[in-house]
């Protein structure tokens, strides 16, 4: 999985090729969409039933896809299981930068609450780390923007939105890409795409 990110291949298409056992070039948009749902669903602790409802396939088919996924990426399954077990022992999970999410649901007698806690335990270190990284990137970009007319006006998930002076477009585009891609060093590269337009929709 790490090598796939270094090779900068389309991860959802590669996953689809494995799930459907066909060549990458033969993957349809629908097959890629299914693989994308699985890739994101896995980190949310989605069950076969949840996947069945999300992408309108049979529960049995959903279960086969999840099993294939974990056979291909067995250490992902190991990571998720270990994270849940650790959370049950400690009552919380941590992001990569040690921010804590408490999980009192794991101590409940209600099975639905426990299941919610387990899904949250799987997801929080991943999504929480992503949130940490974008906040760190905002701080570094803002430091480098001192003296410029352009403004950082919003953060939406993994996107930063800027109101840019026309004569600062090229300078700021290079600055943003450099700072966001280098804010932390992981085992996979952080890749930033820049969009420019008269409004947010056009970007």
Helix content class:
55-70%
Q: CATH homologous superfamily name of the domain at 2-132?
A: 5' to 3' exonuclease, C-terminal subdomain
What is the makeup of the main sheet? 2 strands, antiparallel
Per DSSP, what share of the residues sits in E-state strands of 2 or more residues?
5-15%
Note the gap between the termini: 30 Å
Architecture overview:
Strand 3 and strand 4 (159-163) form a beta hairpin. It contains 8 helices and 4 strands. The protein is mainly α and 203 residues long. Strands 1-2 form a two-stranded antiparallel ribbon. It has helices at 2-6, 11-20, 29-43, 48-55, 59-72, 74-90, 111-144, 169-182, and strands at residues 92-94, 100-102, 151-156, 159-163. Helices cover 58% and strands 8% of the residues. It has a domain at 2-132: DNA polymerase, domain 1.
Provide keyphrases for this structure:
203 residues, mainly alpha, two-stranded antiparallel sheet, 8 helices, 4 strands, globular
